[in-house]
Structure formats: C-alpha cells, structure tokens
Specification:
Shape: elongated
Number of strands: 2
Order of helices and strands: EHEHHHH
CATH superfamily of the largest domain: Fumarate reductase/succinate dehydrogenase, transmembrane subunit
Protein name: Succinate dehydrogenase hydrophobic membrane anchor subunit
Main location: membrane
Largest sheet: 2 strands, antiparallel
Number of helices: 5
Radius of gyration: 25 Å
Keywords: Cell inner membrane, Cell membrane, Electron transport, Heme, Iron, Membrane, Metal-binding, Transmembrane, Transmembrane helix, Transport, Tricarboxylic acid cycle
Organism: Kitasatospora terrestris
Pfam family, one: Sdh_cyt
CATH class of the largest domain: Mainly Alpha
CATH topology of the largest domain: 3 helical TM bundles of succinate and fumarate reductases
Structural class: mainly alpha
C-alpha cells in the first residue's frame, strides 16, 4: 500500500523536488494472533465477480425480453393478461423470467449490501439494514418464483 510519508505531511517531501517522492511504500504488516492466516473464502471477491457476470447475463436477458415483447410481438398494446398467460404456459419463458427475477434481485441486493457497508457507520445499523435487505430479497424472490410457477390463467 502506498501512503503519504511523514515528510509529505510537513510539506517537505523527501527533498528531491519530485512530488512523487512525497509517497513511500508502507512496509508489510506483521500478522497478529487475531489475524487469520487464510480465510475459507473470499466473499467480497466472489460478490464482485457475481456483479460483473450477472450484469452481463442481465443485459442479454433484459434486451432480449424487450426486443421480443416490444418489437417482435407488436408492442406494449399487445401485452395483456392473456399475453402473459400464453407466455408462461411455456417452460422456456418461465425459466427466462425466473432468471431475470433472480439475477436482478440478487444483483440489486448485492449492490445495496455494498452501499450499506460503505455508508452505515455503526455495526448495529449495518446489521439491521442488511437483515432487512436480506428479508426483502428472499421474500421477493420466493413470491416471484411462486407466481411464475403457479400462475393460473383460469382465475
């Protein structure tokens, strides 16, 4: 990690006149007994990777959804209860919409988790906000999944 040197705080730098010399490389920290040598997983790296991959898949799913429903099938005026019933009669469209729902909710929840981690200062606030986010995400995913798979056009 590069950190400002003590001389940089006094405005003197290292005396060479080069502004880059105001920064020095911090020596590696020694491990304490509390610092684990390895963690089981690197959750933040996996969450970062999920955001990139789910974003790419979501772009394909959403643009495909818009292209098919709005351009090829006659536009918004054609979308009705019967249109949705006809679409969800096919397992292909059920899986398509289910993937959009799951990826969008998990992608959004992961982004909100990051925002909560960045801006919630107290640990208790962070815990409550992430708990509420988790409950809302699980509720929405379960309810949406239930609706997609139990949709009955004869109601």
């Amino acid at each position: 990690m590069i950190v400002p040197s003590l001389q940089a705080h006094t405005g003197q730098g290292l005396g060479t006149g080069n502004p880059a010399d105001a920064f020095v490389v911090e020596p590696a920290r020694t491990r304490s007994k509390k610092t684990p040598r390895r963690t089981r997983t690197n959750f933040e790296m996996l969450a970062w990777l999920f955001m990139r991959l789910s974003g790419v898949v979501l772009v394909v799913l959403v643009l495909g959804h818009l292209l098919i429903n709005l351009v090829l099938d006659g536009g918004v005026s054609k979308i009705s209860f019967a249109f949705v019933a006809g679409r969800w009669a096919s397992p292909f469209w059920q899986v398509w919409d289910l993937l959009m729902l799951w990826l969008a909710m998990l992608h959004g929840a992961n982004g909100m988790r990051t925002v909560i981690n960045d801006y919630a200062e107290k640990d208790s606030t962070r815990l409550w906000l992430k708990g509420l986010l988790g409950v809302a995400t699980v509720f929405t995913v379960l309810l949406g999944t239930l609706v997609i798979f139990t949709f009955d056009p004869n109601i």
